[in-house]
Write a structure and sequence with these properties.
This protein is α/β, with parallel strands linked by helices and 439 residues long. It has two domains: 184 residues, Class I glutamine amidotransferase (GATase) domain (Rossmann fold), CATH 3.40.50.880; 195 residues, HUPs (Rossmann fold), CATH 3.40.50.620. Helices cover 34% and strands 21% of the residues. Strands 2-1-3-4-9-8-7-5-6 form a nine-stranded mixed β-sheet, with helices on both faces. Strands 12-11-10-13-14 form a five-stranded parallel β-sheet, with helices on both faces. A hairpin with a 6-residue loop joins strand 7 and strand 8. Helix 5 packs across helix 6, helix 5 crosses helix 11 and helix 6 crosses helix 11. The chain is elongated, with a radius of gyration of 25 Å. It starts with 7 loop residues before the first strand and ends in a 15-residue tail after the last helix.
């Protein structure tokens, strides 16, 4: 989207917690991104990071499939924090020694830190941390000193303040390390000298500036699903370009009770956004007639959604740009060099995969929780911002068997009652998903 004055880069060595590390950085109001472990020195230099974090990983530094970064990163002169495997990697590449001691640690572990250290500054020296390792650092590299130990290992953290290199064997990013955020803040604020400038206001300002520069005087369209991602993307782009934006809401008749009306009211009446409401319930129900297999329902609904949107898009010959609600996890989960591909994301629900538009992705750098906060900042109703995830095929895959108007109405009413009771109990935001199905 744009260059950030401050950025912490997380080198991913295949850790299950890499996304969590990046989120923790952002919770400290500092922008972060995950990059592959083998990213070139030139590319890292070009990003001008304030600091680097070496993530954990599933391998041993001595295994055949061990992953190594370019050792020249330790000569960049910027602060680096190694976490778990990242600490062991740092030790080995800088001349220290890592061994398999036979004293593995998993889960909550009592740690004792030494006084007068940067990482544990103003933090209780005795604390609980979360460990997950078989190997341990036996000898620190030249210039380093051990700064913490546990009952089983003598080097649970290390520092070289002159070179600004740090390592922790435990995981400060997880909630099971209660003082973990304070340790990370010491690294960000003390070692990296960052200031907390990645705020909701700055996100909105940068996004608006980016969209205005790219779109110019051209027209732009957005496929609006009613979900939080496409809703926030649409309002953000509208803030930037105003009436140059047209939102297309394909109503397949498979939405929750009152959802279509809420979308129309919110975007037309509250934000005064150009909204094309395509009412296509009969068309979709005709295509779903006698279809009972859930996966077949998904395929049919996805295909028809695309075709309906394409039909409108073909009429917009003078429109060059298309808004897409891609999030940062969408990019990561669709596969990187080391991260396992979780799923391929096609955003925004039903946007054609082949088109002649230039994509505008104002949320591409954001996690879901950041999107919700931006949505609040932009004035979106709480019912949309904090809405639970809803599948693109809608209620059709929450109906076992045939999808008919009558069965949809029954499920809509039942689902509305479930949601009402969950909210009444004060649990709606605490639950990831809660819904009714029709057997």
């Amino acid at each position: 989207m744009s260059n950030h004055q401050q950025i912490i880069l997380v080198l991913d060595f295949g850790a299950q917690y890499s996304q969590l590390i990046a989120r923790r950085v952002r919770e400290c109001k500092i922008y972060s991104e995950i990059i592959p472990y083998n990213t070139s020195i030139e590319e890292i230099k070009a990003r001008k990071p304030k600091g680097l974090i070496l993530s954990g990983g599933p391998s041993s530094v001595y295994s055949e499939n061990a992953l190594f970064c370019d050792p020249e990163i330790f000569n960049l002169g910027i602060p680096i924090l190694g976490i778990c495997y990242g600490m062991q990697l740092m030790a080995v590449q800088l001349g220290g020694e890592v061994v398999h001691t036979g004293k593995s640690e998993y889960g909550k572990t009592e740690l004792t830190a030494y006084p007068d250290t940067l990482l544990f500054k103003e933090i209780p020296l005795t604390q609980t941390v979360w460990m997950s390792h078989r190997d341990s650092v036996k000898k620190v590299p030249a210039g380093f000193k051990p700064v913490a130990h546990t009952h089983n290992i003598s080097i649970a953290a290390m520092e070289d303040n002159e070179s600004k290199l740090y390592g922790v064997q435990f995981h400060p990013e997880v909630i099971h390390t209660p003082a973990g955020m304070d340790i990370l803040k010491n690294f960000f604020y003390e070692a990296c000298e960052c200031i907390p400038s990645w705020t909701t206001v700055s996100i909105v300002e940068q996004s608006v500036d980016y969209v205005r520069k790219v779109v110019g005087d051209n027209k732009i369209i957005c496929g609006l699903s009613g979900g939080v991602d496409s809703a926030v993307a649409a309002v953000l782009v509208h803030k930037a370009v105003g009436d140059k934006l047209t939102c297309v809401f394909v109503d397949h008749g498979l939405l929750r009770k009152g959802e279509a009306e809420q979308v129309e009211s919110t975007f037309k009446e509250h934000f005064h956004i150009n909204l094309v409401h395509i009412k296509a319930e009969d068309h979709f129900l005709n295509k779903l007639k006698n279809i009972t297999d859930p996966e077949q329902k998904r395929i049919i609904i996805g295909e028809e959604f695309i075709r309906t949107f394409e039909k409108f898009a073909r009429k917009e010959k003078d429109t060059k740009f298309l808004v897409q609600g891609t999030l940062y996890p969408d990019v990561i989960e669709s596969g990187t060099s080391e991260a396992v591909k979780i799923k391929t994301h096609h955003n925004v629900g039903g946007i054609p995969l082949k088109h002649d538009f230039k994509l505008i992705e104002p949320l591409r750098q954001l996690f879901k929780d950041e999107v919700r906060i931006v949505g609040e900042e932009l004035g979106l109703p709480e019912e949309i911002v904090w809405r639970q995830p809803f599948p693109g095929p809608g209620l059709a895959i929450r109906i076992i068997g045939d999808v008919t108007k009558e069965r949809l109405e029954i499920l809509r009413e039942a689902d509305s009652i479930v949601t009402e009771e969950i909210k009444r109990a004060g649990l709606y935001k605490a639950l990831w998903q809660s819904f009714a199905i029709l057997l």
